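@channel anyone free to eyeball this complex?
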Amino acid sequence: MREMKGLMLKKEAEKTPGPMTDFLEFKRHLPKERVLLDLAIVAAAFVLLAPILKVQRVTDFMIFCIFVLSFDLLYGYMGRLSFGHMLFLGAGAYGGGLCIRYITKDPLLAILAGIVMAGLLAMLIGLIIVRTTGACFALINLAFNQVGFFLVLSVLRKITKGEDGLGVVPAGLGWLNLGSRPIMFGFVLFFLLLAFYVLRRVTTSPYGYLIRSIKEDETRVKFLGYNTFLYKWLTYVLAGCLAGLAGTLSALNYGYVNPNFMDTHRNVEVVFAALIGGAGNLYGSIIGGVVYMVISNYLAIYIPRWEMVLGIALLILVFRFRQGIWGYVRKKGAQRSISPEIGIEKG
Amino acid sequence: MINTIIYGLTIGAILYFISIGLSLTFGTMKIVNFAHALVYTVGIYMVITFLPLLRGNFLVAALIGTAVVVPISYVIERFIIRRLYGESLDYAIIATYAVLLIGVDLIKWIWGVNPYPMSDPIGKYLSLGGLTIPVYRILIVVIAVLLFGALNFFFRKSIVGKIVVAALEDKDGVRCLGIKVDKYFSVVFILGSALAALGGILYAPITSIHPYMGFMVLLLSFSVVIVGGMGNLNGTFVSAFALGLVMSLTARYWSQAAETMVFIVMAIMLIIKPIEI
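replying in thread with the prediction:
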């Protein structure tokens, strides 16, 4: 009986998600039920959150979560810290916004335009950026972000309208009116789930293992014969596209786009969110995104020195709480349910 | 045109002051120090505070401003950066960025967000055949060149300098000789921060002063470090002046694009010669 229980626990332990366990098991295909369960959990969480907070706020949260997910693909999975990810958010927002203003009012086409815009940008500058690692990577992203900010603010003033920004009012989606809050909520939720699904598939695929190996030791991956440049570039482009999606959705949600969407000073938000949730995990990103948004939406009203609090929180995260909320929860869960020898076996 | 070149050399001199510290911390500790932008800003705000008290004596105010940065940078080094030695670079970036956020917010709290104007402390002009050149700008360039000589002397002749140069080459090798590298690193860190503060103070009369002024300068001096090579002191000197000229020449034709041009130069450099750290 006890053996049975032990066996069951072991099975459960194997089921728990995590980079190490997944890596050792090397599942080529993710079980379908598991993905559906993930998606259902995420959807349920946001649907439950919507009545507690305001629907509009939660829509905003979800968009930010998409952004954090895209950042986490770069930082948590590939180990490349970017300090200029807002560039792609802004590119997506402007791509969508310009599409609606000058070409068509169809929201889906606008989203496509935003993704394509951010993707093309990532393809282009990714060629330069992914050659670097570590600090260079972070700062060159920041430099390009600054260039992008400058471009939309003054060089392309004629089409982006500079500081004033553009109004973005999409047409309805068939018979759905995106102006109505609940419909916008559903629309964004759909895209969040889509992004989550894509990332779940990508990160559990052999390609996903490869980019994680690049994080661990790129030289060894090169020795195995992989063209790491290509994979890093692909990941960069994918992250750029997802950030662009978040940007377009954000522009649609707010109904305008202005250079603030590309503000370099806001990069720290997404870094903070990824860290507090726990980098390198999709649930972690979503928790981090929600926690950050709750803090910045509610706490910032009561705390006048908001940047200072953010800075101190970042220091605490770096020195004391690196695994983030999701990492902490998982560690506690693992301690409770797994007996020591299995823990060792888990490695 | 001459004026543009003088302006470019001035900017280059300022960039040199600030990049030295970045280049050294980069080369020795493999850490990107965002807090560098903070000490730069703090120095300037100290000068603003002390200048009226000293009845406009810029020299003394500049010395005070530079001196105030020393304990601040010591605290940053001791309690933030030393604890992150040998760890992932990302944490050092995030931690020093957090320090920058806290510091800038403190500055906003104490001095407010409004820009301060500051006048040329010398106020004399040199006229050369129809051109009027502010003496102050020439002075900055002269100080930078002198500093370059002094630093070269320091790194070639003094024992501290020699150890640091050796550590730039091979940190573990120096450690194997029984030398406490970390102690010398903190000396270098403080030296770099003080120079950044001095650069900021010298730049203050030319530019507008506001709490966020450090961010942009940090990016520019980072480009200087990349173009010149990390931990390469002579390279930093050359690239600082070269990029200063790039900025001023671009600004002559298209004033808004000056900074962007620097980043483009940096990108081209990276395509030619990728950097791995």
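from a first look: Confidence is low (pLDDT under 50) at residues 5-26, 339-347 of chain A.
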